[in-house]
Amino acid sequence: MLLFLMASGLTVIFSMLGVLNFAHASFYMLGAFFGFQISRWIGFWPALLIAPPLVGAIGAAVERYGLRPVHKNGHVAELLFTFGLAFAIEEVVQIIWGKSPVDFRVPPVLDFPAFTIFSTNYPAYKMFMLLVSIVIFAGLLIVLKKTRIGLIVQAALTHPHMVGHLGHNVGRIFMLVFGVGTALAAVAGVIAGPALVTQSNMAGLLGPILFVVVVVGGLGSLPGAFIASLLIGLVQTFAVSMDGSLASAFGPLGPGNKNPFVADIWNVTIAQIAPIMPYFLLVLILIVRPMGLLGKRES
Known about the structure:
This protein is mainly α. It has a single domain, classed as Orthogonal Bundle (ABC transporter involved in vitamin B12 uptake, BtuC), CATH 1.10.3470. Helix content is 70%, strand content 3%. The protein has helices at 2-17, 24-42, 44-71, 75-97, 124-146, 148-158, 160-165, 170-192, 202-217, 222-240, 246-250, 260-267, 277-288; strands spanning 113-117, 120-123. A hairpin with a 2-residue loop joins strand 1 and strand 2 (120-123). The radius of gyration is 21 Å and the shape is globular. The chain starts with a helix and ends in an 11-residue tail after the last helix.
């Protein structure tokens, strides 16, 4: 669900603006650090309300004064701009907060086990993360599919001139959409910061898997991002707990095969390759269904 929280903002930006934002995970990191700093001053709950709009305002400014002038040069220029922006944000974070992890803690009101299964405590804070993710998913679907705002935003992507002639400011719409997308990433950062480690390389740790989620689900598909997030989370979780290998399934290699490389491959366990399982899934999806699980083929 944390992956979905991050992927939802990226999906909204891509589906509405057609921009694949490589700096999206960096806005997630900004949300975590803004949340940490504000929580030190006035507490976690005000930080959860204040940090996302602040990051969203930065995202809107990036779209207005950065991406918009670059847009006329094509998608490659946009990708290069957001790629460079990710490095710039990371350097700024390191200058302000340093490279060491910061002490961003779970709020005391949620610092207790919600329930216990097989002697394992499940934290109440993770239940809170789950609830926030579901609420955001439902809210985004309702806004995009059932409201006038959603219709205007979607129309602005496919028929910007027509929307402009109807009296809507298309540039402002794009700026607000980009700001909302980065604010969603910041929400993920604020609530993930206490549960994970808040440090200056956290964007690099989650950034690659974020794009796996978006591509597997289908570029621009919010339900696809939701399903892909659950799928990848379950694949990684179950893979870590499995000790099976080719050797355990088919027995040891025959005495005639002394190749150490083959022997290593034969004996590697599923748990050892768990971190790269999502990327295997990505390759499989691109081969079998390039548009993703719920993506639409471009005409």
